[in-house]
Amino acid sequence: xxxxxxxxxxxxxxxxxxxxxxxxxxxxxxxxxxxxxxxxxxxxxxxxxxxxxxxxxxxxxxxxxxxxxxxxxxxxxxxxxxxxxxxxxxxxxxxxxxxxxxxxxx
Length: 106
Description:
Layout: E1 10-11, E2 17-25, E3 28-35, E4 40-44, E5 49-63, E6 66-70, E7 75-78, E8 84-99
Antiparallel strand pairs: 1-2, 2-3, 3-8, 4-8, 5-6, 5-7, 5-8
């Protein structure tokens, strides 16, 4: 079992944002994103399906042409190829799951 446990370094992809891979294999990746107030996850897209769970904080998300606010306990799925991003309204943490794995995060 201990061969399955790995620790991944933190990264700072944008000002006020800390990213850390929590677990991964070729088919699936779980990532923690911690945001300070007003930090942004800039608009982007990728071929991965993404599920986002708001662990703490408040965020304003844009997915394609829809904008909505989310808070603790909220979750949603972002389809493959959908342009999306967020602004942090109250500092917090998002838990994102990607399928397949985001090799660019390793």
